[in-house]
């Protein structure tokens, strides 16, 4: 009997057009998932300009919840969230039965399979709060050797395009400091927006370098192969779902942004 094609929704955490979305889709080239599974990328309708404050994180959670709220009803078999902040993951797990995979916690957990201590490479210091939160939730603060920033403001749409000569050497220097000075045995790229640097860095370093976006794709595939999803004992369904209200707020926010464009 012919297998049904499995569909995975990848939620991109910023509103964007096709050209910018293609830079996110390029992450697919870093992992071989084989036949029988396809990935569909969807930008959020609303959201913050960047993930740099608690204000931004509240908007991020909502925007990703709004984008993935109907994923299961739309025929998707799993959801991947394209941000190391893991924004919206807990909320979507409470309303969906299909696997919801986010890169922050899963990168850290996989790093523990590969070594004792890991470091996180980040573009700027404002991202530190994202990892600190997840490390605390996992009780893994003692496993993080360091978080090193290169002090470059990220571009969530153009990513690293046109800045390779500037950014790649800075990342390599920070990575070597993580290894030589901090004792890291595994490195994690601090954002899916940094995926274009992965191969270049990995070929110049002697420790594993985790590329978080493609990792989520593979984990989604594995979860589907094994028939696994998150526990509803941990992420229980709401007693009084407000799906229509969430959709209405998302639509109003999108209309507001369109009027200002």
From TrEMBL:
<dbReference type="Pfam" id="PF01177">
    <property type="entry name" value="Asp_Glu_race"/>
</dbReference>
<dbReference type="InterPro" id="IPR001920">
    <property type="entry name" value="Asp/Glu_race"/>
</dbReference>
<dbReference type="InterPro" id="IPR053714">
    <property type="entry name" value="Iso_Racemase_Enz_sf"/>
</dbReference>
<comment type="similarity">
    <text>Belongs to the HyuE racemase family.</text>
</comment>
<dbReference type="InterPro" id="IPR052186">
    <property type="entry name" value="Hydantoin_racemase-like"/>
</dbReference>
<protein>
    <recommendedName>
        <fullName>Hydrogenase expression protein HupH</fullName>
    </recommendedName>
</protein>
<dbReference type="InterPro" id="IPR015942">
    <property type="entry name" value="Asp/Glu/hydantoin_racemase"/>
</dbReference>
């Amino acid at each position: 009997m012919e297998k049904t094609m499995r569909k995975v929704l990848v939620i991109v955490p910023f509103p964007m057009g096709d050209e910018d979305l293609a830079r996110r889709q390029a992450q697919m080239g870093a992992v071989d998932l084989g036949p029988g599974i396809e990935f569909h990328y969807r930008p959020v309708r609303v959201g913050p300009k960047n993930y740099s404050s608690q204000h931004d994180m509240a908007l991020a959670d909502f925007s990703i919840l709004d984008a993935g709220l109907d994923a299961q009803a739309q025929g998707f078999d799993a959801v991947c969230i394209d941000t190391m902040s893991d924004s919206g993951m807990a909320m979507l797990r409470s309303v969906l039965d299909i696997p919801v995979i986010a890169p922050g916690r899963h990168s850290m957990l996989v790093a523990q399979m590969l070594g004792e201590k890991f470091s996180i490479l980040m573009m700027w210091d404002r991202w530190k709060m994202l990892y600190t939160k997840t490390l605390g939730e996992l009780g893994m603060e003692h496993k993080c050797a360091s978080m090193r920033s290169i002090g470059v403001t990220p571009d969530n749409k153009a990513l690293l395009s046109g800045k390779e000569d500037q950014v790649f050497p800075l990342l390599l220097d920070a990575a070597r400091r993580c290894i030589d000075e901090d004792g890291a045995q595994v490195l994690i790229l601090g954002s899916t927006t940094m995926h274009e640097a992965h191969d270049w860095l990995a070929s110049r370093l002697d420790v594993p370098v985790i590329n978080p976006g493609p990792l989520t794709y593979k984990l989604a595939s594995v979860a589907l192969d094994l028939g696994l999803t998150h526990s509803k004992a941990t992420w229980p369904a709401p007693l009084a779902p407000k799906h229509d209200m969430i959709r209405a707020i998302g639509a109003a926010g999108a209309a507001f942004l369109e009027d200002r464009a």
